[in-house]
Amino acid sequence: MRPLASRMAVMTGEGALSVYARAKELEREGRSIIHLELGEPDFHSSPAVNQALKQALDDGKDRYCAVAGVPALREAIAEYLSVTRGLKISSENIVVAPGCKISLFMAMMALIDPEDEILYPDPGFPGYPSISRGLGGVAVPFELSERNRFQPDPDEIAAKITSRTKMIITNSPGNPTGTVYSDETQRRLAELAVEHDLLVLSDEIYARVIYGEKHISMMSYPGMEERTLIIDGFSKSFAMTGWRLGYTVAPPRIVPALAMLAVNSYTCVAEFTQYAAIEALKDREGMTPRMVGEFARRRERFVSDLNRVSGFRCVPPGGAFYAWVNIEETGTCAEELCRIMLEEAGVAAIPGAAFGAAGANFVRFSFASSTAILQEAAERIQQISSAWQRTVAVR
Prior knowledge:
The protein has helices at 15-28, 47-58, 71-85, 100-111, 127-134, 154-160, 183-195, 255-263, 271-282, 287-306, 334-345, 371-384, 386-394, and strands spanning 34-35, 94-97, 117-122, 138-143, 165-171, 199-203, 228-233, 246-249, 313-314, 322-326, 347-348, 350-351, 362-366. The protein is an alpha/beta fold. The strands form three sheets. It has a seven-stranded mixed sheet, with helices on both faces. It has a four-stranded antiparallel sheet with strand order 9-10-13-12. Strands 1-11 form a two-stranded parallel ribbon. Strand 5 (165-171), helix 7 and strand 6 form a beta-alpha-beta unit. The longest helix is centred in the C-terminal third of the chain and has 20 residues, at 287-306. The termini are far apart.
């Protein structure tokens, strides 16, 4: 048999999905499992969005449509980004895709050649290095360290830029740390991008899920409009994970390449979901701020509960809905600790190394579940923490 393409040997999966698979096995065996491994809001799309979907189907909007997205949705996205992020974007610079992952993949495919170097955050979304390597690029991590409040270090990034560097990937608020990049940090990254003629792929999927801080898009800095691509979508801000709707905002010269890739892959996004997405962006019922307000309350309580567990240390995240917990003082490696929590307590969480080497001493918990579920999870973890408390006591 002929072998698979060599790119498959350098691409990786997601730790969250492997933990989820084991958790589902335990559930089939009759175990009670609390799922804190997946970043999926426990909210659903609003009644108005659902009604818009039904109306679109009744109106016969179930046909092939514009490759880059129906004009009405692209215009609505441009207006939405103007209102929520202060960006002045032409609808012609927006390409709609069936999910943010596809948007990310297509953007990187349009830009990365073999041997190009891509700077990406570590810990960070596993797709960044995986896709980079799969396209023949060289994935170069920059560390988000606890000592630097999980902010990128512009000096470290500057030192890693070479003649082969083509792109910097940013993610604010970030997965898994929840870090909101500071204005000072982003301004310096923008200066580096302009100085070295680099592209910036700004993953802004959590831009609306933010707590008491201000989100500033990388595209808003001087010289960045012509070199920044924004990746965003509907999964996190509008709790529409299963709808698979994402989009890329790109400089005009890059848009035709994204459209070409769409033609050669998914052709177009389902027409009726796009019309429902227009209603989501209007958010007449104020669903997004209500949801974020609830996440904020969960964050305060859950982080406080986790910090009561022996050996756990967690700083409240500035955005997203993840608790990024330092477990070094437990004396137990993150993989073993997550195994104990899942197998003995029925709490599913992700070892930090799944997000990069810099996450080795951390565990990620999603707090996108109800307060009652989060409280029960904390109680279960506390009950089995004796498995590592003895190690802490000896130390």
